[in-house]
Amino acid sequence: MHKFFYKIAAVFYKLYLFFSRKAKNIEKQYLPLSEINKEKWFADNREKELRYEYDLDERSVVIDVGGYEGDFASEMYSRYKSTVYVFEPVKRYVDYLTRRFRKNNSIVIIPKGLGAKNEELTINVMEEASSYNRTQSIHKKGTEERILIIDADSFFKENKIIFIDLIKINIEGAEYDLMDRIIELGYLTKCKNIQIQFHDFYPDFQNRYNRIKTELEKTHLLTYSYPFVWENWQLK
Fold this sequence. Notes:
2 domains; about 40% helix; 3-stranded mixed β-sheet; 8 helices; Rossmann fold; single chain; alpha/beta
């Protein structure tokens, strides 16, 4: 009798596994590419292996666009003692960053976003997914806040930045306008490494991505890519 019930249980377990896999495959068909590739990114354990390994030192300039709580800036300074400019326009994160790095003069907090022009905008604050291009993400709903954006050209000129060893960009859809501006200004060749997270919720994102990629391929090599999660372009 025990063997009979064991066989029945085994059959039901196999059916459960079969339909569970089917359900996951169906679910994946409706997930955005970023969510699918994000699973792969973390499954491959690529975060520290790829995002922080660069040929930098204390003379290097790193720009962190979308600083959030400063973990990227902290890691880069800890490893290389580089000068890090952190752009973060949301007040609660600016306050946190200011407290966190108050004793470190090499990590410079810029309480603005870096963009295509000087302007004031409304951002929807959603922790690490804060964006002025959408009011909610898959997981969060935003609360509105007014922020300032500084034109990339203005910032680079005012701070006499002539070469950037690494620029990291994660700004929830605003990366398309920023990259178009960097290309327009001829600044691509001033950026040795461009680590960027493109987003797939932005209107016409694929065409805009393709145009930017075409320009990047003229000056840079793609060193790694998990599409719409993280990719890095290195100057040829």
